[in-house]
Sequence to fold (256 residues):
Amino acid sequence: MPVTDLDLLIDAARKAGEIAADFFKSAPKVWDKPAGQGPVTEADLAVDTMLRESLTAARPDYGWLSEETDDTSDRLSTTRQFIVDPIDGTRAFIDGSKDWAHSLAIVENGQVRAGVVYLPMKDQMFAAGLGEGATLNGETLHVGGTATPPTILTNTPTMDVTNWKNAQPPEVDRHFRSSLAYRMCLVAEGRFDGMITLRPSWEWDIAAGALILAEAGGAVTDKKGIPLRFNNPHPQVNGVIGAVPTFHQTLADQLL
Fold:
């Protein structure tokens, strides 16, 4: 029986976890990327190499976009693409936190069709197929209700008054996780009510998490409330709001 795209991603994510876990325990080498793009470790590069070789061998007609592979325009002429972050939350990985993930997605005509976010040190496999719902280790996920005040995953600058209409940010209980993909999955799991990032967001950070959150009943858009599209020539979107639908509307209405 042919392996489905989602099963292919799940299997690849587990193999990525095995590689990254070995480096995680042994102080991997770290470099700073040029132009202030943040750190990269030898674990990121090893995982990227394995994923690129194995996934493109399994689906040779799919394009490739990854944080740790030099991008080319070749992917723009393909119908389907892998969009991959070998380790999302590299700073957390370096600091010894377990809140980092492998984020793998398959996009078709701008829409995510399958996605997984795997946290190997927690053995948490978030997965979703378009129209098939979202799961955590095989158990169905659904967003929760909204707490009072709502809980949100974002950084401190997001809540600055300059980002909100009438200089009035909403009253929220703010938390933070390094990995954007994991933030979206935590909302999908019902542990938080929403997440926001106002910075231009790389597609590899959010593609898989966006599908998982949407399939769990959440609303996911850019910071202006516009639906996300992927495999853009410049692979960034204009920030992300992902939340329980009613809270999402509140955030979108109040943001400048």
About this structure: The two ends are 50 Å apart (CA to CA). The first strand starts at residue 30 and ends at 32. Residues 181 and 206 are 6 Å apart (CA to CA).
